[in-house]
Design brief:
The complex is a heterodimer of chains A (about 120) and B (about 500).
Chain A lengths: L5 H27 L14 H21 L1 H15 L5 H22 L12
Helix pairs in contact in A: 2-3, 3-4
Chain B lengths: L1 H14 L2 H19 L5 H8 L8 H26 L8 H12 L3 H34 L4 H18 L4 H15 L2 E2 L6 E2 L13 H18 L22 H22 L5 H16 L12 H24 L5 H12 L8 H4 L1 H32 L4 H20 L2 H19 L5 H23 L6 H4 L1 H27 L4
Antiparallel strand pairs in B: 1-2
Helix pairs in contact in B: 1-15, 2-4, 2-15, 3-4, 3-9, 3-13, 4-5, 4-6, 4-13, 4-15, 5-6, 5-12, 6-10, 6-12, 6-15, 7-8, 7-18, 7-20, 8-18, 9-16, 9-17, 10-11, 10-12, 11-12, 13-18, 16-17
The chains are: A mainly alpha (about 120), B mainly alpha (about 500).
Chain lengths: ~120, ~500
């Protein structure tokens, strides 16, 4: 009687019902012309920054195993810091090196947690 | 009762070992730092550190994670007072009067009263726990699958109702969480569901990935999306005129602290984001009880002392349903439940008898943790606040690195990192469109249990759906749920008829 698919099915139906109610509510609001429109705070958002940020993270994840932990974390930090606007390369590289080396020692050496080695062999 | 005291003493012995004291201290420090960092809340913090506890025995692990929970609460208050930035949801109320006090140069007394109030509240709450937990565990033994199901449904609905602005949206998030929870192997029959032939998905979606993704990475992304100038901000720390509260302050706050403790404890036992509700309730109580209510909103110290004490005792009390029933009623306790399961401890009515060392050890460590935090916070607050001076440009990448690293350590799986990123993107959209993450997370953790309870109940009753209503305890919960759901409608109808019809 209560098969494998029953629970997901019930959940799906519930979600559909709620979605319909949601849509109806929005339609009603438009009709009643509720003035309390919460205007989103879009004072010059930076979607480009966001997309670049996500892309950097995705790339890092993709190469995580191949490049190994220390190298990937270094490159990721460099990329993210640059995207967020750290223009001076000196400062950027310094922070990235300190972070990558620091976290390597913290996680791999001190806490003994296995991290991917990559072709550098670290 | 005496038995409980005996157990408590043995708990102190366990918690008092140098090893466990050290773990407690580490947890408290890390927790405070996490609480101080805006964005990463106790949820992501605890989730990130679960992997670090793998080598430890369950007791030490939970002691450390509980310390993080607490520390984060303290840390969250610090940022609320100093920056008007609530470190996490339960600190929102503290912002109101706390920040005003800081602006008047009274940040020192505000922070101190938080520490003192929380300490007193924590101490009193522990006694409450000692005496309530064992009897509650016995009562919980009478719970069968139908009761568990109805209780969980009640918990979901209450949690969805209280978080965020829209019950409907939160309910949708809860259901989405339940659906995500079905991915993987069916707990009852063993069939694979929604795995699309992929091996990593067979074990379901790692809840740590969802937790860190939605709450940690999501928050970072929200920050990244903001205009570039805001990224230069770190912290601007107002000068501290006085460091410690005056006698006058203490006298004024004492009542608030005691009231907060009691109300917080009661509220903490109830499902839902108890600490948050407790702070709101305490603030309202203090305003009503106060002899100078105009002060509130301008820097009344009771407005900080009361809510913070309530917060602390609610956190303590939230551990009771977690340990006794095995049901987490608030998102941070949901993570703790996950941690317990990972370590092979199954919380529930039997936990106290099966793992007395763990239970009483953790309770004792909470007290010790409170003490540690009191000592840590009073002098070290300026130090912690300095972390916030780090401009967001640098802080955000650091957080990301930490998230990715921590995620990997859970299962050594890059797949998990992808999941975390995916939920991070989802978390961002959820923030933007005002959907709450807490119901989703709670649903993800409770989903399998909910389903098992549901199917077991039906198996017991041989397919008769009446089983949920025929058993009195179960019926009570379902009734309460319906009342909660219908309450807004009833109120609306009432208003309209009062105003003279439609």
């Amino acid at each position: 009687m209560a098969g494998t698919g029953m629970f997901p099915l019930c959940l799906g139906i519930l979600l559909m019902i709620l979605s319909v109610i949601f849509i109806l509510r929005i339609l009603f609001q438009v009709k009643e012309e509720q003035v309390s429109k919460e205007a989103p705070n879009t004072s010059s958002e930076s979607p480009i920054q966001l997309i670049l940020f996500l892309a950097a993270m995705a790339l890092a994840t993709f190469f995580f195993n191949r490049l190994g932990y220390p190298l990937t974390s270094f490159l990721l930090m460099v990329a993210l810091l640059r995207i967020l606007g750290i223009r001076r390369w000196g400062q950027n590289i310094l922070i990235s090196v300190v972070t990558a080396v620091g976290s390597y020692f913290l996680f791999v050496k001190w806490l003994d947690i296995p991290m991917p080695k990559g072709w550098i062999g670290l | 009762m005496f038995e409980s005291l005996q157990h408590l003493i043995s708990g102190f012995v366990i918690a008092g070992t140098v090893q466990n004291l050290l773990y407690c201290l580490i947890g408290c420090i890390v927790g405070t730092i996490i609480g101080v960092l805006p964005g990463i809340g106790p949820i992501a913090g605890i989730a990130l550190l679960i992997p670090a506890t793998f080598g430890l025995n369950p007791t030490s692990a939970i002691i450390m994670l509980a310390g993080i929970y607490y520390g984060a609460m303290y840390g969250g208050s610090t940022t609320s007072i100093l920056l008007n930035v609530p470190g996490e949801t339960a600190s929102v109320i503290t912002c109101i009067d706390g920040y005003r006090m800081a602006q008047k140069g009274r940040a020192g007394p505000a922070l101190a009263i938080v520490a003192i109030g929380s300490f007193i509240a924590g101490t009193l709450a522990i006694f409450g726990m000692v005496f309530l937990a064992p009897p509650l565990a016995e009562a919980a033994l009478a719970f069968g699958p139908p009761e568990y199901f109805s209780l969980m449904v009640f918990g979901f609905i209450v949690l969805s109702n209280v978080t965020g602005k829209s019950l409907l949206k939160s309910l949708m998030m809860a259901i989405v969480g339940l659906i995500i929870g079905t991915i993987g192997i069916d707990p009852v029959t063993g069939d694979a569901r929604f795995t699309f032939g992929s091996t990593p998905l067979l074990s379901g979606i790692e809840f740590v990935a969802v937790a860190i993704g939605v709450f940690g990475i999501g928050e970072v992304l929200v920050n990244v999306n903001q205009p570039s100038e805001l990224l230069d901000q770190g912290v601007i720390m107002p000068r501290l005129r006085e460091l410690y509260p005056s006698l006058q302050d203490l006298k004024q706050s004492l009542g608030a602290i005691l009231r907060g403790t009691v109300s917080g404890f009661g509220i903490g036992l109830v499902p839902g984001p108890a600490p948050v509700i407790a702070t709101y309730a305490s603030y309202m109580i203090e305003r009503k009880v106060s002899k100078h209510p105009e002060e509130f909103g301008k820097g009344a110290i009771e407005g900080v002392a009361g809510p913070e004490s309530a917060n602390n005792s609610a956190c303590q009390a939230a551990f009771i349903p977690l340990f006794v029933l095995g049901i987490p009623f608030a998102p941070p306790t949901a993570i703790l439940l996950g941690a317990l399961l990972i370590h092979g401890v199954n919380p529930g009515p039997l936990m106290i008898s099966q793992h007395p060392g763990l239970f009483w050890g953790v309770i004792a460590s909470m007290y010790i943790g409170n003490f540690m935090l009191l000592i840590l916070n009073l002098p070290l607050v300026p130090l912690f606040a300095n972390i916030l001076r780090i401009p967001k440009r640098i802080l955000l990448p650091l957080i990301i690195l930490f998230c990715i690293t921590g995620m990997y350590t859970v299962n050594n799986s890059v797949f998990d990192i992808w999941m975390m990123l995916l939920f991070g993107a989802m978390g961002f959209l959820m923030r933007k469109w005002a959907y709450e993450g807490a119901p989703l997370l709670l649903a993800l953790v409770l989903g399998p249990k909910l389903e098992v309870a549901f199917r077991q109940a039906l198996m017991i009753s041989h397919g008769d759906f009446g089983v949920f209503v025929n058993r009195p305890v179960s019926m009570v919960f379902l009734l309460a749920t319906s009342i909660f759901l219908l309450f807004p409608f009833i109120r609306m109808l009432f208003k309209k008829t009062m105003k003279g019809g439609f």
